[in-house]
Amino acid sequence: MSHYNFSSEGKAIVADFPAQVKGKTFLITGPSEGGVGAETAISLAYGQPSTILLLGRSLPKIQPTIDAISAINPAIHVKFVTVSLDSLASVRTAAESILLDETIPKLDVVINNAAIMACPYGESVDGFELQFATNYLSHFLLTNLLMPKILAAGPGARIVNVSSMGHLFGGINWESLDFNKGKDYHPFVAYAQGKTANVLFTVALNEKLASRGVKSWALHPGSITSGLQKHMTKELYDDGYSWLAKEGRVASARKTLQQGCSTTLRAALDPALEPKDGSIYLSDCQIVTDRGLVKPYALDPEDARKLWALSEEMVGQKFSF
C-alpha cells in the first residue's frame, strides 16, 4: 500500500518519480494563477520536464504560472495555447496548433484539469449546457484530436481527467443533458453530471487504449479554495452539506494547493498504478474502491460506451485509434 495520503504534497510526488518527469512533455488545461492546474504545472517544473503546454482562455491569467515555472527552471519550454472550452471551434483550433507544432513531437501526459462549478444555467457557443460542455465535452474533443501525439509518446503515456466527489450528487441525465433547457436545472446536479462524465470518459479510454499501453485516470483532488468556487453561495453550500448528511458523510477538510495537486500528480506519474477491475478513480492519492466514494454509475462500462457514442454525435466526429 502506498504511503501517500490526504497530506501528501505535489512537489514530493514529483521528486519520487524523476524518470517520469525529466525530459517529458505535459499538457494542462486550466492553469490559472491560484488554482490546482497552476500548482500542478509549477510542481512539475521541479522535475525538469522538457515542455509544459498551458491551455487557457487568457494569457494574463496564465502568465503568473509561466513566470513561476521559468523562475524554477528557465530551460523548460513553456507554451501557452489559447482555448475557450465553451466553444468546440476554439478547441479544434487549439488542437490543430499543437498537432502542427514540430517542437511538440509527442504528449507524454495530458491533464484535463479545467472546470467551472455550480454556475447559473447557461449554454456553450454550440448550444450545450455550459458545465457539461466546459468540464467534459471539450476535453473529450481535445483529447481525441490530440491522440496522434499522445500515441506518439508510446506505452506509458497518461490521460488524467480531474473529476470531483461532486459526481456523487448525480449521474448522467440521459433524458435531457441540458435539463430541459434549464427548466429542471440545479447547479450542483449539473456539476455532478459533468464530473460523472469525466469518470465515464476515463473508463472508455482505458478500454480503447489498453492495447496501446496508454493509461487513463480520474480523480477527486480534494476540497481546495480557488477560483472554482466563485459561483458558490451560502444556499448552495447548505444544499451540499444537507445532501452529504443524508448520505451519512461530512464535508472533507480543506487542502492546500500543494496537497490539492498531489492526487493529479500521482495519477500522472506513478508507473505502479494499474487501472484494472474498474479501479480508475483516485482520492487522497489512493485508488478508491469504496462505492460510496465513487458511484457505480460513474464506472459502468456500458454507460461509458453510450456516453462516448453520444459525445461523438455532439461534436460531429467519430474517433478510432
TrEMBL record:
Gene Ontology MF annotations: oxidoreductase activity
Coiled coil: none
Stored InterPro entries: NAD(P)-bd_dom_sf, SDR_fam
Membrane-crossing segments per the record: none
Keywords: Oxidoreductase
Superkingdom as given in the UniProt entry: Eukaryota
Pfam families, per database record: adh_short (PF00106)
Family: Belongs to the short-chain dehydrogenases/reductases (SDR) family.
Protein known as: Retinol dehydrogenase
Species name: Lachnellula suecica
